[in-house]
Amino acid sequence: MPVRSAWLINRTETESGQSRADTRLSPLGTMAPTGPLTSAGGVIPGAENGTYLMSGLYVYGESAGMRATVAPGRAVIQGQGRAGAYPVVLTDHTDVGFEDGNAANPRIDLVVLRIRDAQSDGGGSTEATLEVIQGEAKSSPEPPRLPEASLPLARVLIPAGASVGTGGIDWANAVYDLRVPTVAVGGILPESWNRDVPGGYVGQYRDTAREMQRWDGTRWVAYPRQIGGIAPQGALARGEYTGQYRDEGGRLQRWDGTVWRPAVTASAWANNTDGGYCASTTWVEAVTDTVGPTITAAFTAPVSGAVFVTLGFLGNAGVEGQWARMSANIRKDGVLVSAADERRAAQVGTKSPVSVSTTYMVTGLQAGSAYTAVSAYATSATSSRGWYDNRFIRVDPVL
Q: Which alpha helices (DSSP H) does the chain contain, by range?
């Protein structure tokens, strides 16, 4: 089998020791670390003319049957414990065979590159091999356990009853690529297409084909393009630093370290042009004999934590000398934070229709949080119906 590895002192088969060709073909050098004495296993990226991320060690099938082909390529396999990392090369296209499928259930097999080193694992052989690890046939099969000192290349679904005589394996749909790239320490890691691989050290970089990212010790973080620059729409799902701005549909947003917030909070407006009456001496949020919803203005608190609330209506008291008032209840997540009050109310005190309004400030709001301002009504006596028409609430941020 044309599988070679450097740093294997004696091979079980053929010639002994590391040959000059092994040294020339194997990917020697310090690879990306995952710890003080361990390296990130993976396939060395690259393809003819730079067309693909990596073409090496690709597993594929071209004809009906139970055999697949593995393309030539180079890789690094982390050994057991303190054995270190083994540079490995497959020099030719190589076939691997799969056992016939179970009569009743499918299974999943793994194609792996594997290192056996008698000095480290206590086994009886010293060699690099290309192997198929057979899974267990089940109605819902799972991949088999990955052996120590091995690198998964692909998993292959073996249908129930599969054999050469029944048409073999459906290669177009059966193979799932498990290869991940690895590079030398300090190199920029290409992003794997099938799974997210954690970084090996703080300050490592990777290229996702969309942006450059840096490993911060717990996650990959997008590398800032320009400090102070406004990111164009669609460029950033997450901010790169607190205080960064982006254009989102023509609206400017600021990254607060967790989520994007409106950089300039918009005004909120709600109104109802249908009239109704109230005969309650305590504050209520709905009037009688009207259509349409309760007036509710939803707004986001600005960075100042303060807003101007303006409200008003066209109305009159039911009895001359009595009064009718409109104010607002402000809530955050259903919790009342500013209650309707006569000191924050628009008021009429005559039977003749009058347009009235008032403006007041609410402070102490939590910047970036969502609030609602809901209209509230009260009259001086239950015997005096207060009438309300053309009601409105407007909330403006204090910047």
A: 20-25, 118-121, 171-174
Q: Look up the pTM and report it.
A: 0.57
Contact between 325 and 379 under an 8 Å Cβ cutoff? The reply is yes
More confident residue, 229 or 91: 91
Burial of 2 (0-12, 13-18, 19+ CB in 10 A): exposed
- Mind listing the pLDDT tens digit for each residue in 27-77? 777 888 888 888 899 999 988 888 888 999 999 998 889 999 999 999 999
Secondary structure percentages of the chain, helix, strand, coil, to 5: 5, 40, 55
The token pair at 214 is 């840096």
Tokens 């890691």 found at: 189
pLDDT score of 312 more than 80: yes
Give the per-residue pLDDT at 37.
Answer: 84
**Is the Cβ–Cβ distance between 391 and 272 less than 8 Å?**
yes
Instruction: Report the SS3 class of residue 259.
Output: coil
Considering 35-39, 255-259, 274-278, the range whose residues carry the highest mean pLDDT is 274-278
Give the closest residue to 388 by CA, choosing from 287, 240, 264.
287
Closest C-alpha among 43, 98, 49, 51 to residue 71: 43
Tell me how far apart the alpha carbons of residues 116 and 346 are, in angstroms, rounded to a whole number: 85
User: How much of the chain, in percent, has pLDDT values that exceed 70?
Assistant: 93
The closest of 167, 178, 143, 190 to 65, measured between CA atoms, is 167
Q: Are 42 and 151 in contact (CB under 8 A)?
A: yes
Q: Which of 80, 254, 227, 57 is nearest to 150 (CA)?
A: 80
Give the pLDDT confidence score for residue 220 in this predicted structure: 84
At 20 the three-state DSSP class reads helix
